[in-house]
Write a structure and sequence with these properties.
Blueprint lengths: L2 H9 L16 E6 L2 E3 L11 H10 L18 H10 L6 E5 L6 H14 L8 E7 L2 H16 L3 H4 L3 E4 L3 E5 L5 E7 L12 E5 L6 H15 L5 E6 L8 H7 L5 E5 L11 H7 L11 H14 L1 H10 L16 H5 L16 E5 L7 E7 L4 E8 L5 H8 L4 H7 L3 E3 L7 H10 L8 E5 L3 H10 L7 E4 L3 H16 L9 H8 L1 E5 L5 E5 L7 H18 L12
Parallel strand pairs: 3-9, 3-10, 4-7, 4-8, 8-9, 11-15, 13-14, 15-16
Antiparallel strand pairs: 1-2, 1-10, 5-6, 6-7, 11-12, 12-13, 17-18
Pfam family, one: TerL_ATPase
InterPro entries: P-loop_NTPase, TerL_ATPase, Terminase_largesu-like
Organism: Altericroceibacterium spongiae
């Protein structure tokens, strides 16, 4: 078959079967070009849709390489077409796809890599395609998809490829100007000097932070040499500080973002949100909806790491999968969240937990009413730098600004939070209620004494607690028991969710726990204040009530 005939064959789109399409209104799919956001189809570039439609037409000439439908013609789902049309238009250098596990994102990018290798839409000579992953074994998955697609071509076309499976995983295509596809693990080795025409960064959220960023920067710096393009694909990262999360939240100009992530806080087995994270389930790709619901219920029953992993991998949520030393998991904490109308009243004595921040960190306060289980929390930062700049430096994006809009976070002071006025403001929020006691860190004794005197709280009892192994282990255990027994009720709080997402415990050989940060830029002050207040509230309710002796008449 001649080369012209092959091109005509690839250019004929295959008829797609009718299928149910997941509602796309709930998904994010946008492109930033030259600093502004716009729909990819409205970009002003000339012939903007030609490359994307050529890619789609080529992909549908391939055959499914593995699975129950192996050997059948490849039919793209609607969400896959949407990604191709957004990421492959002129003016877009980076296309980001975040979707649940098993939705053929690696297979899709491998098919695009094969088309680029063959020069279907880019006929510049000596094309270079990079398949990058955390390690060689992980990259082998994408490499095997490329090989599987090649094996589905005609024998004449297969003979044009040179496949190397030794120390290097490579595919060479000498025809049509020549091209080389090679696997690159993110092991810290530099690839400076390369000039890729297409780079596929597979499961970017799983890369090691330092080595992954080094490889990514090396790849992206070489794309400009030959008008190259990168496809960054992955399930969701466990936190906002991950580099892949920042690609999605703060896309630079020339970036297309398509993120299939359901709203936070829904039950793990909620079908509608499962289909948002797994649109392939409605189109016969990957796991079925019934399987996803069954796995969700199994994860709910097991709890712990099983539930956290299911949320992160299958629901594509930004949930930490660290389970060995977290204070509480996301679902355990959410068990204490209630609607505002169901929040218990402020009744009985109020325990005030305080965590004073340093010169630049957050100060937080937690109010706990042990009789009703009501919990409230507030935090404060100094005014400089602003909340938006502080969020960017802490790797949490716009989260601090959202907390401020929700009334959970405020600013006080210029460069530091003044302890006296801040503590007075914390007590003012009680609207006339005098706290039964205040709990705080004994190592900040002098600061607390001065702050309480300035706030007019000199007569309020102060309970000194340490954050080490002795006091910390007791407080954390009492906090967990109260939460698990349903004795903690609070409205959904972004401040508390964020704090407990970053809160872990260090465990000594005797099994004692003390509070620590999961990452250096994490802010766990609200979690620390809540643990102090709830633990003291539990201690008070556990004490036996002394009864006055009845008088005995002689």
């Amino acid at each position: 078959m001649t080369e012209a005939a092959l091109k005509r064959k690839r250019g004929r789109p295959r008829k797609q079967e009718a299928c149910q399409v997941v509602p796309m209104e709930a998904l994010r799919g946008e492109v930033t070009a030259h600093g502004g956001r716009a729909d990819p189809f409205s970009l002003p570039q000339k012939n903007s849709g030609n490359i994307a439609e050529t890619v789609i037409a080529f992909l549908e000439t391939l055959r499914v390489p593995e699975g129950p439908k192996a050997g059948e013609p490849l039919v793209l789902a609607e969400y896959q077409r949407r990604f191709v049309r957004g990421a492959m238009v002129p003016g877009v250098m980076v296309g980001c796809l975040s979707i649940g596990r098993g939705n053929a994102k690696t297979a899709l990018s491998a098919g695009i890599g094969l088309g680029s290798l063959m020069g279907v839409w880019d006929n510049q000579p000596k094309r270079e395609i990079i398949l990058a992953a955390r390690n060689r074994d992980q990259a082998r998955t994408a490499f095997q998809f490329v090989i599987g697609f090649i094996e589905g071509l005609s024998e004449a076309e297969q003979e044009l490829f040179i496949i190397r499976r030794g120390a290097k995983l490579e595919v060479e295509y000498p025809a049509n100007g020549g091209g080389l596809l090679r696997v690159i693990p993110a092991d810290g080795k530099s690839i400076l000097g390369g000039a890729p025409t297409l780079a596929i960064l597979d499961e970017r959220a799983a890369w090691e932070q330092a080595k992954g960023d080094t490889l990514e920067n090396a790849i992206l710096s070489g794309l400009g040499k030959r008008d190259g393009r990168a496809l960054i694909i992955s399930t969701s990262a466990p936190d906002d500080a991950n580099t892949f999360s920042r690609w999605l939240d703060e896309p630079p100009p020339g970036t297309y973002v398509q993120e299939h992530r359901p709203p936070f806080g829904l039950p793990a087995d909620d079908l509608e949100s499962l289909l948002i994270a797994n649109p392939g389930a409605a189109e016969g790709i990957g796991a079925s909806a019934e399987w996803l619901v069954a796995q969700a219920r199994r994860a709910i029953a097991r709890g712990g790491s099983a539930l956290s992993s299911f949320r992160n991998l299958n629901r594509n949520e930004r949930v930490s999968t660290e389970d060995r030393s977290v204070v509480v998991t996301v679902d355990e904490w959410m068990s204490g969240e209630v609607d505002p109308e169901d929040l218990p009243e402020r009744a009985g004595p109020c325990i005030l937990g305080i965590d004073l921040g340093g010169s630049r960190s957050m100060s937080a306060a937690a109010y706990y009413w042990p009789e009703t289980g009501r919990l409230e929390a507030v935090g404060s930062f100094p005014a400089r730098p602003g909340l938006a700049d502080r969020g960017a430096s802490d790797g949490v994006g716009n989260r601090y600004v959202e907390m401020n809009e929700r009334g959970e976070l405020s600013t006080l002071g210029e460069n530091t939070v003044p302890t006296g006025p801040w503590l007075a403001e914390v007590v003012r929020r009680l609207e006339g209620i005098t706290p039964a006691c205040i709990c705080g860190d004994r190592f900040r004794h002098a600061e607390f004494t001065e702050a309480m005197a300035k706030a007019g709280l000199g007569r309020v009892p102060f309970i000194w607690r340490g954050f080490g192994w002795k006091d910390g282990a007791e407080d954390i255990e009492r906090f967990r028991r109260a939460l698990f027994d349903g004795e903690v009720k609070t409205v959904p709080s972004l401040l508390l969710r964020s704090a407990f997402a970053d809160a872990i415990t260090l465990v000594d050989p005797a099994g004692n726990h003390k509070l620590a940060k999961a990452r250096s830029l994490g802010r766990i002050d609200a979690a620390a204040a809540s643990i102090l207040a709830i633990a003291e509230g539990v201690r008070r309710t556990a004490r036996p009530v002394s009864k006055a002796r009845q008088p005995v008449w002689a």
